[in-house]
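Journal club side-thread
Mid-discussion, someone asked how the predicted structure for our own chain would compare to the paper's figures. Pasting it here so we can look after the session.
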Amino acid sequence: LFESVKPGGRLAVIEYDEGTKEFRHGHGIAHQTVIRLLRATGFQLTDDNPNWPGHAYCVTFRRPKPARVAG
């Protein structure tokens, strides 16, 4: 997924968290699991809204731009 997002590009995940009826019925992924996994691949967390409508949460990430080399 990281390679599919251009440098500087953004990614949003809207999902159901643990403890919701949707999660209990097989839909969703734990909020903190999404953050942990996407940070581990190199994405930077830019926004975290745990109170998205419909019992969901929304997290947004950015793929960092490569560092510029002075020259």
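Post-session note: Residues 31-40 form the longest helix (10 residues).
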